[in-house]
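Ticket #4471: structure export looks truncated?
Reporter: QA, pipeline team
Priority: medium

Steps to reproduce: submit the single chain below to the structure queue and open the exported record.
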Amino acid sequence: MPEFVNRAWGWFQTRPNIQKVLIVLAALVVLLLLSRAVAGIAALICLAALIALVVQWMRRRPVRGWGDRANNSAPYRRSETWQNAFAH
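Actual output as written to the record:
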């Protein structure tokens, strides 16, 4: 393991248990917020690519590149009905 990881792990192990719990909870909150931010950015990129796709299509230009961008940046989410279908 790299030295900085060993130092960080040692520092974490010397903390009292309540501080360890608070550190882990804070890290989870930060990760949750970052995942929401990344999903929002991906949705904006997808929207921009779809608009560019339509504009290129209307101008009768090649749309292959914009279609790929729109497809690759689309935030895929499972629908509630799909989740509920297997909940029984």
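Status: closed, not a bug. The export was complete when the record was re-opened. Leaving a note from the reviewer for reference: Confidence is low (pLDDT under 50) at residues 78-83.
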